[in-house]
Write a structure and sequence with these properties.
Rossmann fold; flat
């Protein structure tokens, strides 16, 4: 075995690093994935022993560095000399595989540090996943790593592989068979079992993983840090992640930004994204957001592809690694089933992919090949009759479709074309894909047993085959340019500068925050309001504000006044006293406590009602800003778009532009357009306030923000505030 020389970059990385006892040294990806030597502490020569696999795999997969089994009970294992201790190993060792019980792991890490190793992989379980005693044992392992300057992968992990050096430092049985040459796709995951399945399935589909890492308990090295190191590797183009818990949203955002800036792609399968653990929310927008909204928004912002299952993870990653980027988001579907084509249209819309009608010239070229009862426009339904027109008829159709200037991607949906016919069609499509300058994606909606020969041909050619129409549509979107909603209007004002000190002072002023004062500090227009504590005061207030007026119950614990009949609109001065009494009676009837009085508010002219909300971020993610169709029906229509605070004016405009209600703002059926510029300004101000407030502000919501016709402004009518101490103020 030859020893690898460390790069100058690695030497520079370690120069001037703090002493291990003071701080954890940075990960040296070079020494971890390209070690000069690997020592296996506790290597076993017993046949069938799980801890004997790493040594066998290193030999079988042709690791290029030194391999040093360490166990005083053996003189030789797998034909290699076995050493009694790490100190006795003759060559340089960068990576130590700890094949010992949990109780011996900390001492093993210290021994690794004594010989200058940079990384130790601890496979054993019995740590934090087992309870308090295990937590203490894991902490001692971390301390041993810090004291000795060794970074620890694991414990309770399945190790790592790196194809360029033949490094197979793992015990997963997925490494038992010959692994394909790396295709520029790497994997890092927090589950050993899922990771083993992904490695095995990747091998089965012919996708060679350049790197594969199982992080286990992440006592020291975590998913994000390892992924960041792999993104710096020129051999890695696409990085797959299996995420069970992000933990640090800021670190995940930095990773996603690193991938984008490097021109590489992240494909992420995240578990635990359901709303089962959703926190209680007082605001409409908060109740409509899933627990993973910050994670999803961060991923979307930086071009991360989120997938829903393992097959989709692998197929999308393979597509990104092997297919050219599409020039646009226009897809032509060629299928053997009209029903599958209809489903494709729906799934493509889900992923913001267009299905343009093919040009008349293209349809004229297709007409001689496709029967009259087929379809030419898009989706193209070739029908089963096409296969009677020659061995290459299907490929000819795909080439003609690809020639259409309105098409960027050709998506082929195969149904029950199986057996020998399926194999011939696969060969035809492989040749077709090689002759095309545009990407060709294939989904085969038939059982593997009946299509084994054809799938094997696709596998050998490196053409990924999707198992569902939805995963194909997602992949089509992932290789297409980013979605743009057109240029933002030039009339958008630059971001305002808020008085952050004033905002923070209001949030820290006491147990109850004045929502109206908070909105005023943001610089958002509000209607004039007076709090009445008697019927006489209410009548005088209506008279003074000008009639008609709005009257609303005011109580800190009452988030949604309409639910208890606590809002009356268009109240005249002569009726104000009676309405006041009716509202107080409604409070008693519905057991509303601590009523402060009745808010008398000037009526705002009708306009387009929006809802603008901010929800505090968690786990290091920034607050989430949401905007949608407002009023009492907001949760009924659930037409909401979200972004990460603070948003720019262009981002706020894009959020509005993505709403189904956008036509109302743009001017629907002759109605005047809304004052979009002032609505954007209000959204930006709320986002800036939320970003400045941090975790002081749990929820903030304006509902409605009434947007007048263009030039008329936007007015915050009702406001809800919930602060970190659990209090809320509703100025409705």
């Amino acid at each position: 075995m030859t020893h690898l020389t460390l790069t100058e970059a690695t030497d520079r990385e370690n120069d001037g690093a703090p002493t291990p006892a003071q701080n954890t040294p940075p990960l040296s990806a070079e020494r971890m994935f390209r070690p000069r030597g690997v020592a296996l502490l506790g290597a076993s020569g017993r046949p069938g022993n799980m801890m004997g696999r790493p040594l066998r795999y290193l030999v079988e997969h042709g690791f290029q560095g030194g391999i040093y089994p360490v166990n005083p009970g053996y003189a030789e294992i797998e034909g290699l000399p076995c050493f009694p201790s790490l100190e006795a190993v003759p060559g340089p060792v960068d990576l130590v595989l700890v094949l010992l019980p949990a109780s011996q792991a900390a001492d093993a890490v210290r021994a690794a540090g004594a010989i200058g190793a940079s990384t130790a992989v601890v496979f054993a379980s019995g740590f934090a996943e087992t309870g308090p005693a295990g937590v203490a044992l894991q902490q001692s392992l971390v301390e041993a790593g810090r004291q000795s300057g060794v970074r620890v992968l694991g414990p309770n992990c399945q190790g790592l592989l790196y194809a360029p050096t033949g490094l197979a430092a793992t015990f997963t049985p997925a490494a038992d068979r010959r692994l394909p040459v790396g295709d520029g796709v790497a994997y890092v995951g927090q589950s050993g079992a899922v990771g083993g399945s992904i490695l095995d399935l990747a091998t089965e589909m012919g996708l060679g993983l350049t790197a594969w890492v199982s992080t286990g308990n992440q006592a020291d090295l975590g998913l994000v840090e390892i992924a960041s190191g792999l993104l710096q590797d020129p051999a890695v183009k696409v990085l797959m992640l299996y995420v069970e818990a992000v933990g640090d949203g800021a670190a995940y955002a930095a990773l996603a930004r690193q991938a984008r800036d490097a021109g590489k792609r992240l494909v992420v399968l995240a578990s635990g994204r359901s709303s089962a653990g959703r926190r209680a929310a007082a605001s409409h927008t908060g109740s409509m957001l899933g627990d993973d909204v910050s994670f999803v928004l961060t991923s979307t912002k930086y071009g991360v592809v989120l997938v829903d299952d393992i097959d989709e993870l692998l197929a999308v990653a393979a597509t990104l690694a092997t297919m050219p980027r599409a020039e646009g988001r226009r897809v032509a579907v060629v299928t053997t089933s009209g029903g599958a084509g209809s489903l494709a249209a729906d799934r493509c819309e889900d992923h913001h992919v267009e299905l343009p009608e093919l040009s008349s010239a293209t349809q004229d070229r297709l007409r001689p090949l496709i029967p009259d009862f087929g379809a030419l426009a898009n989706p193209v339904d070739v029908t089963a009759q096409l296969f009677n027109r020659g061995a290459h008829a299907f490929g000819d159709v795909c080439r003609i479709v690809a020639d259409d200037p309105n098409v960027d991607v050709v998506a082929v949906l195969l149904t029950m074309v199986v057996g020998e016919a399926g194999a011939r069609l696969a060969e035809d499509l492989i040749a077709t894909a090689e002759s095309m300058s545009k990407p060709l994606l294939v989904a085969w909606l038939a059982g593997r047993e009946l299509t084994a020969e054809g799938r094997a041909a696709f596998q050998q050619a490196g053409v990924p085959v999707f198992g569902t129409i939805g995963s194909l549509a997602k992949a089509a979107g992932s290789i297409a340019p980013d979605l743009h909603r057109g240029p933002a209007p030039s009339s958008l004002a630059p971001p305002p500068t808020l008085d952050v000190d004033r905002l923070v002072s209001l949030l820290e002023s006491g147990p109850e925050v004045d929502g109206s004062a908070l909105v005023a500090a943001m610089g958002i227009t509000q209607p004039t309001s007076v709090l009445a504590t008697s019927a006489a005061e209410a009548a005088a207030a209506v008279q003074r504000l000008g009639s008609p007026a709005a009257m609303k119950l005011q109580a800190a614990a009452l988030a949604h006044k309409s639910d208890v009949g606590g809002v009356r609109l268009g109240v005249l001065p002569d009726d104000a006293a009676e309405v006041y009494d009716e509202l107080r009676a409604a409070a008693l009837r519905h057991h509303v406590h601590n009523v402060e009085g009745v808010l008398v508010q000037e009526m705002v002219p009708p306009g387009i009602e929006l809802i603008v909300g901010a929800t505090a971020g968690r786990d290091g993610f920034p607050p989430v800003i949401s905007v949608g169709l407002g009023g009492v029906t907001t949760e009924l229509y659930r037409d909401v778009a979200s972004g990460l605070a603070p948003v720019t004016p262009v981002e706020a405009w894009s959020m509005l532009r993505s709403l189904r209600a956008w036509p109302l703002l743009a001017g629907f059926r002759g109605a005047p357009a809304g004052d979009v510029e002032r609505a954007v300004d209000a959204i930006v101000r709320v986002s800036q306030a939320a970003a400045a407030a941090g975790d002081r502000l749990l929820e903030f919501e304006i509902n409605p923000l009434i947007v007048a016709p263009h030039g008329g402004g936007a007015v915050a009518v009702d406001v809800l505030v919930r602060t970190a101490d659990g209090t809320s103020d509703v100025a409705e």
